[in-house]
């Protein structure tokens, strides 16, 4: 049990590594024949019949089985290597001789990107005596850890990009200055090295960018409560919140005919315009004011508004010189006509 748990954990680590660098590891060590293709291990075609597979296995087993090696007077080293090779051959045979595992393995080869699914199927079969709940527990844990790490990676990449980008960097610098956090270089203490100063500057800029990003919502720092495990645990709470919201909505607005609160108006505007609350927060004050002024929480008003915006966009395209040139070119026959003009 402990051993299988270890295998489980080591594969989790490998899956995580592979996710970030898929090209370098299509096949996952620790699953089936590891990084080798089981068909190659047995030296058979992927369409080989059951008989051919058994024959290939018997042939290789006779070469690598420790007993045979010993019988032929192989050295300790040869026997040691033979054991490993024999183990690999046996694993390949185990995988391919059974139609069901072979189908699963073929699927794994064709869809290496579906690692959760492949992983789940492999371990379920590998540990048939293990309670399916344990397998599910492990799989959900893998997904949760994976989610958190991959969100963290993309968050860090985004922040890193902004720290390096002069536009965001300058904005952050201005912010630091306005808060009195920025110390001019010449006023810095002398004993600090250049690298220290650069590091301090980067840290300050980074912290300001992170804070601003959090406010704008687009690049929120990953939250533990968003990972699958927490979502499952919090499910009853979400269900409760869902019903509470809809029932009180029904009560307040449909039955009691109350006036919409400001918050609920925004909720409806977002719904009518098909945007997320985050996107609403990022709208300019002018846009927000226009939406509220035109009472877009009323569906018919929102429809008129959306139509107007679409017409506006169309008119803008019609007057765009680039689009005009494109249309002229299309009228002349578009990409279907060979021309030799320098148009
Ligand atoms: C309904 O009204 C109550 C009390 O005025 C308020 O607390 C609740 O948030 C409202 N529900 C909705 C969905 O706006």
Could you explain how this protein is built, in words?
The protein is mostly helical. It has three domains: 2-126, DnaJ domain (Helix Hairpins, Orthogonal Bundle), CATH 1.10.287.110; 132-222, no CATH class; 259-331, no CATH class. It is built from 17 helices and no strands. The chain has helices at residues 2-20, 38-42, 50-64, 66-71, 76-97, 99-110, 115-126, 132-164, 166-178, 194-216, 228-233, 235-255, 262-273, 277-281, 285-293, 299-319, 321-331. α6 runs antiparallel to α7 (115-126), α8 crosses α10 (194-216) and α13 (262-273) crosses α16. The chain is extended. It starts with a helix and ends in a 12-residue tail after the last helix. The mean pLDDT is 82. The structure holds 2-acetamido-2-deoxy-beta-D-glucopyranose. Residues 245, 248-249, 252, 261, 264 line the site of 2-acetamido-2-deoxy-beta-D-glucopyranose. Belongs to the DNAJC25 family. It holds the Pfam family DnaJ. One of its GO terms (biological process) is protein folding. It is a multi-pass membrane protein.
Strand content: under 5%
| CATH homologous group name of the largest domain | DnaJ domain
- Anisotropy-based shape: extended
Helicity, in percent? over 70%
State the helix count.
17
Compute the number of strand runs: 0
Q: CATH first level of the largest domain: which class?
A: Mainly Alpha
Spans of at least 5 consecutive residues whose pLDDT stays below 50 are: none
Pfam family, one: DnaJ
Family: Belongs to the DNAJC25 family.
Protein name: DnaJ homolog subfamily C member 25
Membrane topology: Multi-pass membrane protein
């Amino acid at each position: 049990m402990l051993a299988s748990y270890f295998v489980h954990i080591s594969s989790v680590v490998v899956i995580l590594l592979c996710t970030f660098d898929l090209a370098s590891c299509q096949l996952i060590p620790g699953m089936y024949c590891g990084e080798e293709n089981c068909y190659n291990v047995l030296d058979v075609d992927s369409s080989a019949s059951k008989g051919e597979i058994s024959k290939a296995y018997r042939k290789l087993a006779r070469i690598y089985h420790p007993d045979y090696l010993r019988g032929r007077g192989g050295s300790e080293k040869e026997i040691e290597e033979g054991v490993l090779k024999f183990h690999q051959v046996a694993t390949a045979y185990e995988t391919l001789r059974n139609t069901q595992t072979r189908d699963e393995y073929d699927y794994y080869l064709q869809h290496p990107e579906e690692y959760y699914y492949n992983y789940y199927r492999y371990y379920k079969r590998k540990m048939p005596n293990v309670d399916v709940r344990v397998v599910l527990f492990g799989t959900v844990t893998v997904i949760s850890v994976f989610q958190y790490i991959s969100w963290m990676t993309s968050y860090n990449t985004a922040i890193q990009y902004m720290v390096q980008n002069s536009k965001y960097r300058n904005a952050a610098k201005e912010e630091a200055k306005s808060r009195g956090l920025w110390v001019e270089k010449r006023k810095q203490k002398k004993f600090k090295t250049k690298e220290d100063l650069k590091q301090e500057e980067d840290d300050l800029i980074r912290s300001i960018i992170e804070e601003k990003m959090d406010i704008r919502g687009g690049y929120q720092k990953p939250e533990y409560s968003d990972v699958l495990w927490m979502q499952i645990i919090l499910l009853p709470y979400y269900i409760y919140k869902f019903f509470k919201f809809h029932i009180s909505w029904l009560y307040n607005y449909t039955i009691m005919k109350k006036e919409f609160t400001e918050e609920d108006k925004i909720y409806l505007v977002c719904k009518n315009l098909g945007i997320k609350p985050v996107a609403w927060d990022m709208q300019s004050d002018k846009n927000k004011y226009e939406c509220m002024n035109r009472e877009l929480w009323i569906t018919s008003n929102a429809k008129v508004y959306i139509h107007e915006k679409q017409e506006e966009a169309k008119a803008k395209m019609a007057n765009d010189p680039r689009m005009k040139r494109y249309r002229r070119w299309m009228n002349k026959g578009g990409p279907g006509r060979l021309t030799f003009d320098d148009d």
